[in-house]
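>> received
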Amino acid sequence: MNGEIAAILAMDGIASGAIYVLIGLGLVLIFAVTRVIFVPFGDIAAFTALSLASLETGGRPGTVGLVAVLAVLATAVEAVALVRNRAFHRLPRALLFYLVLPLIPAAAVWFAAGTTFSMPVRIVLSLALVLPIAPLLDRIVFRPIADASVLLLLTVAVALHFALSGLGLMFFGPEGVRTKPLTDAVFDVAGLIVNGQMLLILAASIVFCGLLFLYFEFTIQGKALRATAVNRVGARLVGIRPTSTGTIAYLLASLLAGISGVLIAPVTTIFYDSGFLLGLKAFVGAIIGAMVSYPVTALGAVMVGLLESFTSFWLSAYKEVLVFSLLIPVLLWRSLAFAGTEEEEAEE
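>> returned
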């Protein structure tokens, strides 16, 4: 391996790591606020890419039907809960949030089937279509068992992933797709050819990470999310509703998943079940960040991307094995550190 090949592999690894950063941050965000390891996160990213590819061909993505069914189910669940609590004044807001708003992009895509849109319109429609999926799943599946153990929540999340994966096969078929590149620009940097698509992925990751930082630091809702993540009981005592902050967390995570799907679709062939592997690699980065630290999660995700890129050159047959083997030393170190903390607490 010479320096030029190493530079190419490093750029490819950083670009892949930038995608894993967005997905990993979404996983940490949901877990910190709700204690749910949201396994279907990658499926939402894959559904975005598949929906975008369907819109490119003038088709009607099956995501439309999924969103419509989820909207009806979530509205019914919320309405029943409000009626039982005699909170009838909140019914109009529930109908607006759980039924009307999710159905607007679904209806737009449904009636515009067969129309060829420009690329920005296709991207906006795809993002708007998948944006309600995570909050709706939260209301239907996770909120009724919000006080359950983390293990039970994880089991339900895994089952939900398999359900969405099966629906993806039914909606989009077994064939893989790639969307048109977002840019055809090519740059010569010190004699090295750099694809504009990779630079766009890296720039988008940096921009959205910065926006998340600003959101958490300088907005009331962002501070409410941080408070809920630190202490749910304390947040409730000061008037912060964990259900509301959980919905916001799922909404932001769904946006991150959608952006990841749009960015990765032109450079990787996406299948109906590709989301699981994407989410699992990002999960490795989230584990490095202990599922609580956003900066360490971002660094871990970039590390996963670099490891994946270089191992695909040296030992392509063992690429996945080596990437997931990174979990072993991290988990050993975490368990030893946790054991040391327990011993100190016991002595005190």
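>> The chain has 15 helices and two strands.
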